[in-house]
Write a structure and sequence with these properties.
It is built from 13 helices and 6 strands. A 6-stranded mixed sheet has the order 2-1-3-4-5-6, with helices on one face. The relative contact order is 0.07. By secondary structure, the protein is an alpha+beta fold. The chain has 3 domains: 105 residues, no CATH class; 53 residues; 49 residues, no CATH class. The radius of gyration is 26 Å and the shape is elongated. This is RNA polymerase alpha subunit C-terminal domain-containing protein.
Length: 278
């Protein structure tokens, strides 16, 4: 939006005189204030108005913007922000928020056991992982805290990236943390090895284990033993009541997935061959 098309009150609001040492948005278009507290209060006001989902916060000294004196401030909820991509300035912003210097606003708490972004690198893919890392995200918790509509506004974040993040917002199974990981290329190769040794039914039942097994630092022989063991486990019998409920609900996809992971039974309840399930 150019200056002529901006509402008059906002154009005036931006026009504040600042000394050489001051705080601005990263593109230099909007001055925020001569000191940290004033600048933060002005920044969260813009976030609260919904004009921005995030602001690049920069400290300028003698007209220069040191690389370490910048941070990105995301609005993640009402009265809650998340700061990224900064060092000293990020710490200063968080300290000010924690001290209550910005009335009604706080910083997103850090989880007791944050999940490093590197732990889900294989599930995100190299391109999406690099994109998020360049943006300053260091943990999965930070990524999931930012609303999707805000992420969509970031440069380079498209449909593919958002879909990868959605899969982590609502995973099919628990996120299994691996203590010792191997390089990403080997992770893909070893995960493929596990998949090849398992039947479709076993993959549907134990699919949540495939990626973590590929990531962990186990030898190929050990992975083969684990995959073969999982694959040899007998299928549990299907519950006729569940089959009827899914059939009556006209949910063929769910019914098919259920039957693929259970030993099929006739309506009488006696087990039949599990060849279809396998």
């Amino acid at each position: 939006m150019d200056e002529e098309s901006q509402p008059a009150e906002k154009a005036i609001e931006y026009e504040i005189a600042l000394p050489a040492d001051a705080y601005w948005t990263r593109d230099g278009r909007i001055p925020l204030g001569p000191d940290l507290t004033e600048a933060l209060n002005r920044a969260v006001k813009y976030l609260e108005q919904g004009e921005f989902g995030s602001l690049s916060f920069v400290a300028a000294f003698d007209g220069h913007w040191p690389r370490d004196e910048r941070t990105i401030v995301y609005r993640v909820d009402d009265g809650v922000v998340l700061t990224l991509d900064g060092r000293d300035l990020q710490d200063q912003v968080r300290t000010a928020l924690d001290a209550g210097e910005v009335d009604g606003w706080s910083h997103l708490p850090t989880p007791e056991t944050p999940i490093p972004l590197t732990e889900v690198q294989a599930r995100l893919g190299v391109r999406v992982y690099n994109l998020l890392a360049r943006q300053g995200f260091r943990t999965l918790d930070e990524v999931l805290a930012v609303p999707e509509e805000t992420l969509r506004q970031e440069r380079g974040v498209g449909r593919h990236c958002l879909e990868k993040i959605r899969q982590l917002r609502d995973p099919e199974g628990p996120l299994i943390r691996v203590a010792h990981t191997r390089p990403v290329r080997q992770q893909d190769e070893h995960a493929d090895l596990v998949r090849r040794r398992m039947s479709p039914a076993s993959l549907q039942r134990y699919g949540v284990l495939v990626e973590p097994l590929g990531q962990c630092d186990l030898a190929v022989s050990a992975l083969s033993v684990i995959a073969d063991s999982l694959n040899s486990e007998p299928l549990p019998p299907a519950d006729p009541a569940v089959v009827r409920l899914l059939r009556d609900a006209a949910e063929p996809g769910l019914l098919d997935a259920y039957l693929r992971t259970h030993e099929a039974v006739p309506e009488t309840g006696s087990p039949v061959s599990g060849e279809r399930a396998r």
